[in-house]
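Sample intake — PID domain-containing protein
Collected from: Ladona fulva
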Amino acid sequence: MQEVPLYLGCVEVFESRGMQVCEEALKVLRNSRRRPVKAILYVSGDGLRVVEDETKGLIVDQTIEKVSFCAPDRNHEKGFSYICRDGTTRRWMCHGFLALKESGERLSHAVGCAFAACLERKQKRDKECGVTMTFDPKNSTFTRTGSFRQTSITERLQDPQDFKPTGDAAPPAKTAVHNPFAIERPHATPTMLQRQGSFRGFQQLNQASPFKRQLSLRISDLPSTLERQRSLSLEGNDLRAPIKAPGKKSPPVM
């Protein structure tokens, strides 16, 4: 579908769905000083694309999977807006439009049909991720529940019951790969895999070995440590002993 509405811009919202949220966002965009841009709105099963009519510059390129809610404005016949998740900031943004030829209800219905076509093409992915869509014909609104985001290994390990595969999904069949030019991985011979007998002659080997260590490697038994301790003990004995001059006798102690 191709339509030429006025693009009012986008504003951040704090809810992912709700007609009142879209109406308040459209009210803010209409009362702002931002000049509306005449653009071309392309609606397909893959996404929403807004291109400026005069310069043909790309303004918005939104995948349909990230659109969570769209609705016409009940207070303004030409008003239409949709809420989506911004891919960079992860914020909920509401984009507002004013239709020139058609009504806002027709634009909202077109977006809902595009999302339904997207879900129809991705039924298998819908089963794995649990994405559902409900359409309200009275208000011409649709609501997406769930996420297309693939769960990580950490999330699956935290709660395996929520992310277990469904019983309808059959496991993929394994196909044999034949490559005549492939080099086979080397394998151990049966003799190498046999358990070898225990050798219990370590005591005799230790006695007759030419590499037997004669000195201990303990810090307290090292020759340098023993020599240092001996020298310190000799110096201590010399300092404690009084020095006597030759040929003189010390006076008796009274």
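Post-analysis note: The CA atoms of residues 148 and 217 lie 65 Å apart.
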